[in-house]
Amino acid sequence: MDLTTDEWKTRIDPHLDSSLQAVSDAITQTEAVQTWLHRASMEAAEGLGQMSGMQGEMQGYMNMMADLEDSLPNLLAAVEEATDGCGHVDLHWRPLQPNFSRLYVSFDRDFSVKVFCRLSECSRDAAEAALTTVANALPKGDPFPNRPNTVTGLVAHDGRGLGLRVSEHLREEGSGTTRSVTLLPRNESPREQLAWTEAVRGVLRDLCSEAP
Which of 103, 153, 175, 182 is at a distance of 20 to 30 A from 22, taking alpha carbons? Predict the structure, then answer.
């Protein structure tokens, strides 16, 4: 049985700005989704007939996604609202191991998103807060030489989303670390190796009609 949109958002919202893996767990581990996964996986497998291989998996996936829209519409609405229209529910279906299938939030970008946050307003403080939220999800521990720690998030405002990749580098002299930011706008080339203040200006330029 589907939860209400607000009940889904209560499960989803606390994890968006720290771990989308935790969002996936919070969604997938509910009784509603476990029941749906079990039923829909069996029906999808039965409906494939003699179809097998990649073609069969794709057809089964499409059948399950169509069933998801009918069975758990409040979940889909909750994810759309919680991500400011930038994200949607997707399925990682394992037809041979349906118990390991899971639902997750996808942003349809060509990079993997670990955290999501909203730009609360068009101000420098808000842009810095968004950058800090993404940076807080960096892997713990010092980076190795020539192999920075990185984390990629998506920041949204008024229905627009911008990818942010924060990299933490070991200083050349081997003492301490420094950070740089890459902005990943949709359908544009990445803007790489930005200093923090440059990245703040870039966030406001990309997500706000007028940067202060």
Answer: 182
CB 147 within 8 A of CB 177: no
Can you tell me the mean pLDDT for 47-52? 62
What Rg value do the Cα atoms of the chain yield, rounded?
20
93 touches 60 (CB < 8 A): yes
Gap between the Cα atoms of 150 and 182, Å rounded: 10
Non-local CB neighbours of 156 within 8 Å, separated by 6+ positions: 83, 84, 85, 86, 116, 117, 118, 119, 162, 207
Q: What 3-state class would DSSP assign to 101? A: coil
Q: What is the pLDDT of residues 122-153, one digit of tens each?
A: 999 999 999 999 999 999 988 888 889 999 99
Q: At what angle do helices 5-16 and 73-82 cross, to 10 degrees?
A: 40
The three-class DSSP label of residue 74 is helix
**In this structure, what DSSP letter does residue 87 have?**
-
